[in-house]
Write a structure and sequence with these properties.
By secondary structure, this protein is of the alpha/beta class. The chain has a single domain, classed as Pyruvate-ferredoxin Oxidoreductase, domain 3 (3-Layer(aba) Sandwich). The chain contains six helices and six strands.
């Protein structure tokens, strides 16, 4: 089995961090094959950013494909650009704080979460990606939650003061994802 994931948004939303954390956790928790393929726009912060993560039982021929199983979009431009790549039956995770466009497809599952608003309520806009990762994992269960949290702890280990806020953000996202799945 193979899962193709696209994470897209603009620079500064933590798009690459989501991809890196998912890929690292998959490497740590499974014996599957993993690829992480980042793509940056010309600008850094504020420019476009997206990444592809593939988790597979078999060797991966290409880090990118024309058809995605799961898609996480953090802004409207990414939705418009990448939505045609989501396969029929695919799952779309949307930052509904920013993405106001109609999805316009009835052949996919759409999970909306106001992650930017939630991050601001927590007092730090930088945790919106951690919330969204929680939403994604709570819904898909593509990886063990405890392993992903261990990856987050390890990657943020140099800033231990941020761990409680990130844990709260992750848990809030998990709750939304699990509620949407139920």
């Amino acid at each position: 089995m193979e899962t193709n994931i696209l994470v897209a948004g603009f620079g500064g939303q933590g798009v690459m961090t989501i991809g890196k954390f998912l890929a690292s956790a998959a490497c740590d928790a499974t014996d599957k094959y993993i690829t992480f393929f980042p793509s940056y726009g010309a600008e850094q912060r504020g420019g476009t950013a997206n990444c592809y993560v593939v988790i597979s039982d078999e060797e991966i021929g290409s880090p990118m494909t024309d058809e995605m199983d799961d898609m996480i979009v953090m802004n409207g431009a990414s939705l418009n650009k990448f939505l045609p790549m989501l396969r029929t039956g695919g799952r779309l995770f949307v930052n509904s704080s920013i993405v106001k466009e109609e999805i316009g497809r009835s052949d996919i599952t759409v999970v909306k979460a106001p992650v930017t608003d939630m991050a601001l309520e927590l007092g730090n806009s930088k945790v919106l990606n951690i919330i969204m990762m929680g939403v994604y994992l709570g819904y898909t269960e593509v990886l063990p939650v405890d392993v992903v949290w261990s990856t987050i702890e390890h990657k943020l280990g140099k800033k231990p003061a941020l761990l409680p806020l990130n844990r709260m953000a992750f848990e809030q996202g998990l709750q939304i994802g699990r509620a949407e799945r139920a």
